[in-house]
From TrEMBL:
<feature type="binding site">
    <location>
        <position position="95"/>
    </location>
    <ligand>
        <name>Zn(2+)</name>
    </ligand>
</feature>
<dbReference type="Pfam" id="PF01475">
    <property type="entry name" value="FUR"/>
</dbReference>
<feature type="binding site">
    <location>
        <position position="142"/>
    </location>
    <ligand>
        <name>Zn(2+)</name>
    </ligand>
</feature>
<dbReference type="GO" id="GO:0000976">
    <property type="term" value="F:transcription cis-regulatory region binding"/>
</dbReference>
<dbReference type="InterPro" id="IPR036390">
    <property type="entry name" value="WH_DNA-bd_sf"/>
</dbReference>
<dbReference type="InterPro" id="IPR002481">
    <property type="entry name" value="FUR"/>
</dbReference>
<keyword id="KW-0479">Metal-binding</keyword>
<feature type="binding site">
    <location>
        <position position="139"/>
    </location>
    <ligand>
        <name>Zn(2+)</name>
    </ligand>
</feature>
<protein>
    <submittedName>
        <fullName>Fur family transcriptional regulator</fullName>
    </submittedName>
</protein>
<comment type="similarity">
    <text>Belongs to the Fur family.</text>
</comment>
<keyword id="KW-0238">DNA-binding</keyword>
<dbReference type="GO" id="GO:1900376">
    <property type="term" value="P:regulation of secondary metabolite biosynthetic process"/>
</dbReference>
<keyword id="KW-0678">Repressor</keyword>
<dbReference type="InterPro" id="IPR036388">
    <property type="entry name" value="WH-like_DNA-bd_sf"/>
</dbReference>
<keyword id="KW-0862">Zinc</keyword>
<keyword id="KW-0805">Transcription regulation</keyword>
<dbReference type="InterPro" id="IPR043135">
    <property type="entry name" value="Fur_C"/>
</dbReference>
Amino acid sequence: MSKELLDEYIKTFKEKKIKLTDIRLVILKCVASRKHFTINELISEIEKELGTVNVMSVYNNIDLLLDLHLLFSNTINGKQIIYEAITNQLIHIKCHECDSYEHINSPILSGELWSSCQQFLDSIGFTMDHFKLEMHGICKKCSQKNKVEPSK
């Protein structure tokens, strides 16, 4: 778990005078400790910690985190929604073959993209605070699997 991220979330809640309930604390721990998660994964995590959970309460808290810009929602194949903590630069790759969805952590790429985007946005008077990029293609594993061996 990213203790720094969890502490940042708790600080935000205190600054905004939002009550830090048990369910909110478990949700914040989950967000701070996972790259991506679905609502069902989150509900399972909450149930491990607290027992039964009001599903509507989970959705309401997710909406709160989205409104506070502490959480991103991403749609995979237009069907499944996954969530993740907001950072300044989010870069994802998505394989069309196996549906893998990976978070890329590349300070060099992120820095270059940030600089290029900010330069353009400065020209139109827009100040960027974060960006999200999703690239689609075929992963290495699927590429190798799809290679046809020459017949002998």
